[in-house]
Records
---
Amino acid sequence: MTPALVDVRGLVKHFPGERGLLGLGRPRAVVRAVDDVSFAIAPGQTLGLVGESGCGKSTVGRTILRLIEPDAGRVTIDGQDVVALGARALRALRRRMQIVFQDPYGSLNPRMTVHQMLAEPLAIHRIARGAEAERRIAALLEEVGLDPSFAQSYAHELSGGQRQRVGIARALSVEPHFLVLDEPVSALDVSVQAQVLNLLADLQQRRRLTYLFIAHDLAVVKHIADQVAVMYLGRIVERAPAPALYAGPRHPYTTSLLSAVPVPDPKAQRQRIVLTGDVPSPAHPPPGCPFHPRCPHPKKDTRCRTEPPALREVAPGQLAACHFAEQPL
Amino acid sequence: MTEPLLRVRDLKTYFVTEHGSGTARAVDGVSFEVQPGETLGLVGESGCGKTVTSLSILRLIPEPPGHIRPGSFIEFEGRNLLTLEPRELRAIRGNQIAMIFQEPMTSLNPVFTVGDQIAEAAIVHQHLTRRAARTRAIEMLKLVGIPDPEERVDHYPHQMSGGMRQRVMIAMALVCHPKLLIADEPTTALDVTIQAQILELLDRLQADLGMAVMLITHDLGVVAGSADRVVVMYAGQVVEQAPTPALFARPLHPYTEGLLASVPRLDAPPAREHGRLHGIPGQVPAATAWPDGCRFHPRCPYAWDRCRAEAPPLLDAGGGGEPGTHTVRCWLLTDPRRRTPHP
């Protein structure tokens, strides 16, 4: 096996509870946004990181790029220990790792033209200036499927799909090896979503990119991921190669997520497990297995309510954190 | 067949653009019907005119810059909504026809409790007392599956999650037991798990309350499980209209075909084996400049000379049932041999 390009071990990020009004009163409970998360991504591969809003998946993406400082854990990208780096070395490493955000409306500067947005990273990292920068900007736009005339446009003149293409071009401008894609297609129409997913797949092949693809929809992830990790309340509850996970999920949460995906076939007879309620607050996770209050597994017992299940290998390469992983739903 | 609850005929809603230089023909001759108690899916990409259609039904189009063209016709239970006096219209809007919007974050008022917001319609339309309206609000919260409704009724929107806020929106819409609920992208901003909950809830409420639902979405996956019939819109027009099983078994318009192929599917082979989704190339053109001929031809994989020159009418696709059950706005129906395997 080739060594991983991205290696994350025991990542922890807790947000201190804020104090009440005016900073007085007792501080609220600590939010355990990311709690002991580990995974590795081989070069040129995609890990899909899946879970509901508030499960900590975006915090993982931002923490490994050190857009948020982790509390504990080790992150290695391209052989470099990201957590230990000083400011200057970190800036140099930022060329190798970039992020594309979910909201193509909020993540582009409304006062800059597309040209300015793409020229800025080239200047900051001293990659190109003048005529060479112009050539690169035109090539980048073409690579993401935009006409070079878009260079003079402002973000508000673009559709959602076009903005997301600009966001991708901006990330690619510094020639990274690793991209965090934080829900890059969730805000788009299905037709545009398909275009952007295809674009991401093409770019990955052409540039040998490594992706961390964050999403809440397992059907979208299936079209791009080699490995899938499912998160719930700050922890990974299942992790497996994509074919194994889709063919035989071991954690009841994964099964529930799969069954929530709408199927474009009115004849499809299937048992839908509708999870009741919302994700509990990560400031007050339930005792025992954090999923137990919503768990539809018929064998659920007192052990689930008291003893947190460890993430363990239940089949070759497939890890699940469930006491009943051997008897999946 | 029973008398339709809502009948839309040749609806044209145009907007004068900002600089007065052009006219956006956002909805351009749309006709469809909603039967009592049925779910109609209205499907298309952003910019196809779905939302303008629904806002026109409730006469919520800001005038100017928008206007509903003479000759348009929207009939609800036999009354033409376009000619009603404002007072008569108010008696229908929010009472017999209700609407829920995509953004549960921005469509609730942040300075009122959810209970006040749910009770408002009951006080206005049904002249309930404050006390009775509050009791009704609690009942509604219970109906839409919010735990601890007696406590939640006094909460503000910011104290709730996205899924709960969408439930509150539904409770607000249903408080007067409308005959028609227009749900505009009710699940688009939500997680798949919460989406499944909301769709299930709408299904259940519809069965319990016997109301008709117009479900507006860009995702054919969403309508497959809930709609009885589907109307597909493109570029301000209806391009295909059929009962849900027929539409999914035999999508005839190339646009419908493309929308269906864009939906990411769990039964697709894993990424490495096939790699690509079949999207629709390009994007919806601007409403100020719909293409000549068939409006879909620049994006259509089958287009030929005729499509560029001549706008197709809605043609009957046959396929059993009464005439007009499955209609398609595409010249392929007259020349099916041109439907070659997908390029």
---
Amino acid sequence: MESDAAVTALLEVRGLHVAYGKVEAVHDISLTVAPGTIVTVIGPNGAGKTTLLSAVMGFLPVQGDVRYLGAPAGALSVEQRVARGLILVPERRELFAAMSVADNLELGAFQRIRRGDRGWRDTLAEVYQRFPRLKERRDQLAGTLSGGERQMLAMGRALMGKPTLLMLDEPSLGLAPLIVREIFRIIADLRSTGVAILLVEQNARAALQVADYGYVLETGELALEGPSSELAANPRVAATYLGRGVAAAGS
Amino acid sequence: MDLQIFALLVQDGVTNGAVYALLALALVLVFAVTRVIWIPSGEIVAYGTLTLAGLQAGKSPGTVGLLAGMAVVAGSFEVYACLSRGEAHRMPRQLALWAGVPLAIAAASWWLATFELPFWAQILVTLALVTALGPLLYRIAYQPIAEASVLVLLIVSVGVHFALTGLGLWFFGAEGSRTPPFSAASFELHGVTVSVQSLLVVATSLALITALYLFFGRTLTGKALRATALNRTGARLVGISPDLAGALTFTLAALLCAFSGVLIGPITTVYYDSGFLVSLKGFVGAIIGGLVSYPLAAAGALFVGLIEAFASFWASGFKEVIVFTLIVPVLLWRSLTTTHHEEDE
Amino acid sequence: MSSGRKLPFGAWGAAAFVVLLVGVPLVAPQFWVTLGNYIGLYSIVALGLVLLTGVAGQTSFGQAAFVGLGAYTTAYLATTYGVSPWINLLVGLVLTTLLALFNGVLTLPMRGHYLPLATIAWGISIYFMFGNVDFLGGHTGITSIPALNLFGLELRNERYYYYLIWAIALAALWTSNNLLDSRPGRAIRALKGQGQMAEAFGVDTVRLKIVVFVYAALLASVSGWLYAHLQRFVNPSPFGINQGIEYLFMAVVGGAGSVWGAVIGATLITLAKQVLQDVLPTLLGRSGNFEIVVFGILMVVVLQRAREGVWPWLARLLPVREPPPVPAAEPLALRDRTLLAGPLLDVRAARKRFGGLIAVNDLSFAIHAGEILGLIGPNGAGKSTMFNLISGALPLTSGEVVFRGESIGSRKPFAIARRGIGRTFQHVKLIPQMSVLDNVALGAYLRGDAGVLRAAFKLDRAEEARTKAEAARAIERVGLGAHTHAAAGSLPLGKQRIVEIARALAADPLLLLLDEPAAGLRFLEKQELAALLRQLRAAGMTVLLVEHDMDFVMGVTDRLVVMDFGEKLAEGLPAEIQRNPVVLEAYLGGI
């Protein structure tokens, strides 16, 4: 049973509840991410998507079962989860604004360097190859980057930690359409390196295009789930999140 | 006032200022990484002087007992934490780190104190003993409520200041101490007497500041501390533990304070409760730097040293009144030029 | 705490307190009377800190300096010029007011940790001043201060003096409790972390902070005056920064959220210090300043384990009375609602620049009386910035916002509130421990004028009854009548958002600004909110609704303005917007 779960699921969440004081933000959520797949969680503003990722990352106290790499993860600290390759790129990016791009990337490998993992320099070269813009700007302070470059730096910093499961919170937020396209191209490309991705997005159309499987989160609860292609074809999803037949839904 | 006196006062001010600058840097560091306004830094300075004085007198300094006591408390905190988190397997390592290491330092110092050590070795023992107090203080007093507001952490600091003052009396006694100067020599420069002691103090401070600069700019650990100061959430996301950052910060800060204590010893008589005013003067400097800028903090501390030197010449009784009244406009200026978030209040 | 209750604790508790208070000097040995006197003196100072720090959130470590000012004023005037202590009390209060105003004006605009540091600084300055000014006797101080004379009775006996101290302490408790349950009281509670919200309802927060600061300083000064005539000797040592810290700690230990916390804290700390001073030396076999070690450790432990102090824990043991229904009262005056020609609100080429980023770029639109206008757009489109430009939370870079023919752009939030614009907040800003009724009554702040003095002596009751009745009406109007007396923080998020609307309605606004009211609401809650908005429109209210949720705005708005990247993308009827391909592309994310 244990070993089975380890093979089929990288992350397994069962009956998760998260509350801020007396207000419950996430209610009885269960979801699974298999190795090497992209899973997306879509839903409107305030549905609890960010709360869900913060909880999985270990920032918030939760009720319910979180298993990662086949072992219970509920008692692990954020740092211990990072050490096991669970890495989050948050909605607010959380970069080190007054430090250079290169320092930000180096710190992304903080735990690896401390463990004596020499491979971090190779990872750095890979990140620079994937994001040539970051290489051009490696001596620039992170705070002076544009919105798109910041998102790239946040993703690059996360990749420096050699993630097994990369969680992306609204990577397209506030970016111009051209850059959004670029970010999603990179997300699709990352799958080929074997990294599993849990993608939280409001941009449902783009998210469902890139993902294998999707969940729809509404006011803290899972409303729907299924393979992305099925979700995209679902009339309710199409009406609410993809803009097809909005008029019909409004009446 | 003639030029001779003016030059002497400047020399006094710069020497004192150099010591306050170390303290100011420690305070900025602690605040930036942990958001703790570290009032009890002054007690650590006083412990530094009193420890060195104790070694000079051929006694085992009170710091040994204090360090051992705190190691036992921190060790039991760790045992409790490991048990309540169900991580019994981590206990040996945590115990060795939090109780074993400081106890070993205490035991070694106690043994070394029985010999007639050369001056430089006494200084090394002092630095080791006093620096070891830093991380223990963080572990015992601050780590359990590291996420509390700045204000709660400030009140905790005041509590720690009380406790350390009382413990200072207990371990060091009520008598003041003064350590001998590193050098009694002096020379004339354009008709002004310059003491080698002053030069040594300023040079040591400068060397420490340079070392800090390199540490923060070049080493991974230094960068990790800077990252924590800049963005706590971001730091956790790359796996920098706030507990580790806090303990490291307090170690560095205690080292700076211990140096301050060693440097200030020959300048003024230090009592168990002298630390508070010294730390507040460091604070004035730190606050001039907005508790974020290291160079401004150091410059501010120098300014405080100069003000103090001149105030004690013109109105010695009102020296403290002048220094502390000066903080208020500085605070006002800093408060108005800093952006705040309401949630911090 | 809850304002509906007449007595803060059960009748038995009150009786026990009175018996203890009156009985101690009659039967107890001298030692206990002395302790009782000090507890009274400390309670008065700590009470000021409950208001200043616990309720208003402004931390001061420097109160001991004001105690010293009260003590030194009477000591100096009585011994040097033989002035009556009663006149000295007044002189002390005047001097304290002046010093507190000076300190307050200088330090209270400071925020965060700057204020407490500043209080440490001037606390130390004033302490050194006492010790270094020759006519105050330097570090030896002033001796042979005369005893107080009350109606010909010389209060040399500490047992008589006890009654004077406690009469004053109880009076201070009474006025402070009254003050908290009043128009200024509600505003004072909002000072702690909710300054922006208070400003939006017309509270001049800087001025109010100074008023509370002076109030706390005056209490400290009275305590100092009592102290001088009790000891009949003063020197600088009890007015140093350590004592200032202890006063603050008393308030924290007792429970800085309630006036009773001051008395409990003063009692506990005084007794604990006494015990420690007696016990520790015998225990340790050495004499020394050990109690300060235990005291310091105690501070750390209390903050680590029980940050709210003792009072909340005690209060849970006491019976809670069912709050009575809010009695009906004459409504407060309504504002002039004459319709003027032209739109109610006209935004003309509004622009906001943050550094290099233009968040709102020359946006123009108008709101007409009686309509619900929706301002929508994807995340990061600049909707919230536009909202803040209208509510005054942010100044305009260029352009104009015209309300009823008057330009209001870049005015302060309370000036805009005064003109009849009410608002809600995207992140709910209620005072969680306060009842729904009190939260909503804060909305009517600008419709009353009771000040601190009227409130302290309960001379504001008629206006207060009308305000409460008005608030209760607003709560009924939004359908939350059943929750009137519940603590606002205990409601689910959806209801808290509705409380915010009730609070805005209590201000009698002409225009209601709603900032993402549907965010985080469940489906049913959204439907209730939509129904409420339709009902408000039917009653003639004009609403600007800034919202992200498309479905929600489609159902309730008359017209829509769509923003993207700070610019207006489209404007029109909901049905038109739904079919607009440009809007769909921007809003739903194109790839």
---
Amino acid sequence: MDQGRIIKVAGPLVVASNMQNAKIYDVVKVSDKKLMGEVIEMRGDEASIQVYEETSGIGVGEPVYLTGEPLSVELGPGLIQSIYDGVQRPLEKIQEVAGDLITRGIELPGLSRDKVWEFKATRKAGDKVQEGDIIGTVKETVLVDHKIMVPPGINGVIKKIEDGNYKVTDVVAVIESDDGKDVEITLMQRWPVRKPRPYIEKLSPDEPLATGQRVIDAFFPISKGGTACVPGPFGSGKTVVQHQLAKWADAQIIVYVGCGERGNEMTDVLMEFPELKDPHSGEPLMLRTILIANTSNMPVAAREASVYTGITIAEYYRDMGYSVALMADSTSRWAEAMREMSGRLEEMPGEEGYPAYMGTRIAEFYERAGKVRTLGSDNRIGALSAIGAVSPPGGDLSDPVVQATLRVVKVFWSLEDKLAYRRHFPAISWLTSYSLYVPNLEKYFETKLGRIWLENINRAMSILQQEAELEEIVRLVGLDALSPENRLVMETAKSIREDFLHQNAFHEIDTYTSYDKMSKMMEIIMLFHDLAEDALKNNVSIIDISELPVREKIARMKFIPENRIEEFDSLKNEIERSFKELKEKVIAEA
Amino acid sequence: MIKEYNTIREVAGPLMLVEEVEGAKYEELVEIELPNGEIRNGRVLEVDRDRALIQLFEGVTGVNVFQTKVRFKGKGMELDVSEDILGRIFDGQGRPIDKGPKIIPEKRLDINSAPINPYARDYPSEFIQTGFSTIDGLNTLVRGQKLPIFSGSGLPHSKMAAQIARQAKVLGKEEEFAVVFAAMGITFEEAQYFIQNFQDTGAIERTVMFVNLASDPAIERIATPRLALTAAEYLAFDKDMHVLVILTDMTNYCEALREVSAARQEVPGRRGYPGYLYTDLSTIYERAGRIRGKKGSITQIPILTMPEDDKTHPIPDLTGYITEGQIVLSRAMHRRGIYPPVDVLQSLSRLKDKGIGPGKTREDHADVFNQLFAAYARGLEARELEVILGEAALSDIDRIFYRFAENFEQRYIAQGEDEDRSIEQTLDLGWELLSALPTIELKRIRPEFIEKYLPRFKKKEESGD
């Protein structure tokens, strides 16, 4: 085996000489402890290596072994329900071999070599196939049919294919490729993480990724194949938003990357997801989820790799024709890992010490999302949506990571600590957030929920904006100085905020709202507003309106279960009746 | 075979460069012998060909480039542990300073432990009653959590931390917490306050202290919290104890880190702190937690003073991103004489949802605290209005919330230094205060709880009037 020699150790950076046969981004094993590392720079025969494991105790003169391969992930059945570290080592297996702590030099394959899967061929010998074609399936979980695809770059005729029980490394088919060679197809393929997986073409997004979160779905929707970022100071609920999306997003596969975040949070996901039921299928959410956990105290270089590991796995499922959602929490920690490595390499720093190439890396990452026509002759459509949390220092949005992210993503969910302090959750600001997908999705909403939904949403937004302006006046001269019409705007805005936008992630019903229920809720609020406007014209006082007992019921409509949606009709009737009585009372008094 | 070198090339700041070294390892412990025979400790920061860069824990005063000897110990920094460490006081490098005997080690542990596998962690969910309403009721602490106190100079964080250490208990269980206390660069009086407090209450018997005072070598502080956590891990995971770790003051720790970084001429991040401050802090804070199948736990309460009370300063900022919430102390509240001066709206415990509810505290807990927060926030808005326009300008409902906020601060937040409120008392107090609001405003509480709990307090009030 080719071998170099360490000449320098500085934290996660190791420099080795005699490395003339190494290539940039090749994986190497450092010292006899076999620590995993990646070549990130070459000068003559000296290679700079970022090491994915703690380097204490490593010294000059120790060997570095070359593997000649770039950092790759294993793709095949068994990914779902796994929890990996940043370089796709299964944490469950690590515990079996190493105990409760992650010790060094553990080498474990990403996919279990022992597990047997039932393979069903969908093509037969003699069929002509091309790259990306599905040749068979494996039932990975109740929710996921794992499609076995012809790996990219292979075209030819199937020579042999057979149903049966196989391990991931067993040959399930042989393809005689166009250049006459026999290619053995196993259930598993490998792919280098830093290289996007190929597809035929990108398509423009036209369908929302329903998340069950009212403020997102109604006002700032993300499309299937879209990109979004959630920046916010600590304590503003980024992680809760990410968890909520991972739980309820209407995607078939969820890849959750915990990048440099808290260990206990990952444990929470691990313990909670198997118990939560997918609202669409009724099965545990874990059956469609892959977790990548590189907590903040795990080595920083592996944190840098974790987002790539995550998105490569996500692309693989996208290629099967699935809608995949990837959550990365938090991309700031990823950028910081880049900064740390850059500092150790003594590169010239850009803004705030971040490397000059940080913006490019972030853009490249988000550009791997999208709705695509995948490889293969059957015109499959797959979508990969990417949602990244950003943790700007002090919540300051001028932070270089936020700015680099905003340049590429289309949806911006701005979390504000001011809202969080008032316990308005999700603390997504309705005044500063935006979604550039709204025009693309209009047609979808119109056919699904009708024109009225779009109108209501626009009206609600303009009421919220009026409230922000009126608040200034109230602050100066008091609420009493407002006209009854303006006071009604304040009342309705409050109702939109408290009865619609505010959503309790920990309440069993409130945690998820379907588009149907959402549109009913919005209708109720707008109905009340319209009737109140009309009543004001008929000399009903604003105090009487705001003290209507039916408002308590409006405040509780978010707790109406999805299967009792008809209760909205009786609520509607009650509102109409209340206003009728109010008006009659005024007439009687006159 | 330990080799000795006298090939020191450079001494500057807390750093020393040694040349012609063979086989030095990264993070290796180093012993330095001064011409007068004094022994100091250091650690290898970088090895580059035959050069080793060493960080000296006790500073460079008196080091001579030509006559000082350097010995590489071939291992990282370790702590000797046995059950006898309980009740003892050590210096910032783990050497006994209480005139007691040497520790006969049962084990020697590397002070940089490997990260806990997230898969092996058990989710913290056992409620810890601290006796503070602001913590128990609103920012619930659970076993295995790391919940820092963000304070400012002159605020009573020490008093609060000592009270927590004194009162903390898990309901229904008699086990007491063992306390591991790490002082980094605090004053003698402050350290003495804790020691005295632990002695008076007898808590010293189950306390291990690591003390690095303001006058002690600054660079030593980099090792102090790691020593403390190593002791805590030993007590928690080897000896099945529930350990409460108090680290004060993390700001001094970060400054020591900055000093080393500056001496190495590294590219600085914000405010001159090194770019890896987040990663470094996480290797301290993430050592809190529970492990499945192990009885013990480590709960951390780091204390840090925010320079200029600025929460966006890198130290509190990065801490907040790693810890599971924060207790923020407010100077304005302190000036008004409220103890503990907890800024309720800025404080947060991320793990509270798992630690509260039926079987843990009480079924109505979550709703009550949501409602208290919302009502207090609204009361503060009304207070803002009142400042500008006077109380007369407030609408009736605003006036009710305005009074609520006053009451809430005086009766709920404020409590005595010896007042140990049970969770029942805290929750009932919440209901009592909420009963002053119109029922329609209690939107965050489920109707069934309103029916069950509210009448008790509504009635009381009416009959009291």
